[in-house]
Amino acid sequence: MSNINRVRNGGFEQSTPPSVAPFWTGSAGAVTETGGSQLLEDNNALLPVGDSIEQPLLPLQLLQIYKFEAAFDTSALTGTIDIEISGHSVRKFQGLNVTGLYTFYNFTFTATAANVTLKITNNTDSDVRIDAVSVKLA
Ligand SMILES: [Ca+2]
In this structure, which CATH number among 2.60.40.10, 1.10.10.10, 3.90.650.10, 2.60.120.260 belongs to the domain 25-137? Predict the structure, then answer.
């Protein structure tokens, strides 16, 4: 069986800028961008300070280990990019150390529920750009 991405529209290619839909919902300032700010293909998401995007993941298999991965780009000096997987994981990437151009960041977690929501929040002091979000079996 192929290792499918549990995140749908993880590269924001199905979105019509500036909306983050489909699959993603966002707070008021969260948008999809195009025209050169993306890492892969045509689109990326932009989270201004304090904004977030989230989506219910395709079902996970209990007790399997999954890897979250996404590319981030920010000029932040303080604060964190927070990744929540409802009730199971909260990871904080230090904005200061996510510098300049897009880089991929990841972590693994054990699924303790089948149906979870992934949420990415910009709690840094600068815009955060996001592309190529995935959650796959590790
Ligand atoms: Ca993309």
Answer: 2.60.120.260
